[in-house]
Design a protein that fits this description.
The chain is an alpha+beta fold. The protein folds into three domains: 77 residues, Metal Transport, Frataxin, Chain A; 182 residues, no CATH class; 102 residues, OB fold (Dihydrolipoamide Acetyltransferase, E2P) (Beta Barrel). Helices cover 36% and strands 21% of the residues. Strand 1 and strand 2 form a beta hairpin.
């Protein structure tokens, strides 16, 4: 029953769908593909149009050395008589290609997704190699960036702590990831159907963070960071950007909208990547510390099941831990109760009832501690819910204890 700190890696984001064997044995069906969307995705992922019949089809070659030896014929619209055949041939060629760009194009066709790109400028080793830690650092920073964006979609705060963390992390389960060799670039495909608010929020927050950093470097003031909270900037985002930039010569993040879904309202159709440099680290660290220090406590009325009790002797105050059922956006809270409230909490646990308590959720420690706890009252529940709670608590009986040490 421990809480995971923010900087501990999350459960790995689901890998790119082309990686598991057999999952992409067949390309998307031609009748499901819009030629204009295919062309836009090819252009986005570095393919070049090299001629073709104007108004009918274009000839596209892949990026990188030797690209001129391979080409796709892509119709400009379905008005061209042989468009269905050309699309089918192009999709088969993409599915058989070993190019990462071909794989990324197929993902964009199969799952209309906004794309988030990260780049890290790190010194290359012999023959373009890099330490294995470079790729892990990139993935960790990208996960933290996505989580910060997901948290911001659930509420603006300078410091989120444990609040909303579980649903925010769960919202990343459908994000697909494709990494380039060398750990210098990574792309996340955020499905439009479930993740567009995340992409929009992150897009806005990155620009707000860049502007706040520039203001700090120009004036020495932190005021812009205060206003940036409304755009989604937070302690969690500044920590993610520190992780992204640290140990590099610079880093960039870009958000590109799914061609099939169009541009979200209020966002630019295309924008340059947002750049961060090692010179931004002092401002980011100062902002992160400021957000964490100044986020106010929150008055709450929490309902939860007692999962742990501890005090230093048979009488007096004691510490109680609740598994939160309602009233706060955290999985557990800990609080210190006086002798009478501690006794009520113990009795409620023994009969399988949750308790309701008033207090203030403190930002210090990640919003996991309730201070000024009062009004501890057992809450009546129906028999089915009571049986479920009892079963859950019995499974965690080791955590319910009276100990002769301080918590």
């Amino acid at each position: 029953m421990t809480h995971r700190p923010f900087d501990e890696p999350l459960r790995p984001v689901r890998p790119h769908p082309v990686e598991p064997p057999g999952l992409w044995d067949q390309p998307p069906r031609p009748d499901e593909v819009d030629p204009a969307v295919l062309g836009a995705l090819l252009l986005r992922h570095g393919w070049r149009r090299r001629g073709g019949a104007p108004g009918r089809y274009g000839r596209w070659t892949p990026p990188g050395p030797g690209g001129s030896g391979t080409s796709l014929l892509v119709p400009e619209s379905r008005a061209f008589p042989d468009s269905e055949d050309l699309l089918g041939e192009a999709l088969v060629a993409l599915s058989r290609s070993g190019s990462p760009s071909a794989r990324d194009v197929l993902v964009g066709l199969a799952v209309p997704s906004d794309e988030i790109h990260w780049w890290r400028d790190v010194p290359a080793g012999p023959v373009g190699t890099s330490p294995w830690t470079v790729e892990e650092q990139m993935r960790t920073a990208a996960r933290q960036t996505l989580l910060a964006g997901a948290l911001a979609t659930r509420g603006r705060a300078g410091y989120h702590g444990a609040r909303h963390r579980r649903p925010a992390a769960a919202s990343l389960e459908n994000v697909l990831v494709g990494a380039a060799p060398g750990g210098r670039r990574l792309t996340a495909f955020v499905p439009v159907a479930t993740g567009r608010p995340l992409a929009v929020q992150l897009h806005q927050a990155l620009y707000a963070a860049r502007e706040a950093i520039d203001y700090r470097r120009a004036t020495g003031g932190m005021d812009a960071f205060d206003g940036a909270v409304e755009a989604g900037v937070s302690h969690e985002l500044t920590e993610a950007l520190v992780a992204l930039v640290r140990g590099t010569e610079g880093a960039r993040v870009a958000v590109e909208w799914a061609p099939a879904a169009g541009v979200p309202e209020g966002c630019a159709a295309s924008a340059e990547p947002v750049e961060f440099s090692p010179g931004d680290l002092p401002a980011l660290r100062a902002a992160g510390a400021r957000y964490r220090r100044e986020e106010p406590s929150v008055p709450v009325r929490v309902t939860g099941a007692v999962v742990r009790m501890r005090r230093s002797g048979p009488r007096g105050d004691g510490t109680v831990r609740l598994k939160v059922i309602a009233g706060a956006e955290v999985p557990h809270v800990r609080m210190t109760l006086d002798e009478e409230s501690y006794r009520i909490a113990g009795q409620a646990h023994l009969v399988g009832l949750p308790v309701r308590v008033h207090g203030r959720l403190e930002s210090r420690g990640g919003f996991r501690r309730l201070t000024g706890a009062s009004g501890v009252t057992p809450v009546q529940v129906d028999e089915a819910e009571r049986d479920r709670l009892m079963k859950s608590l019995q499974e965690n009986l080791d955590f319910f204890e009276e100990a002769c040490t301080e918590d």
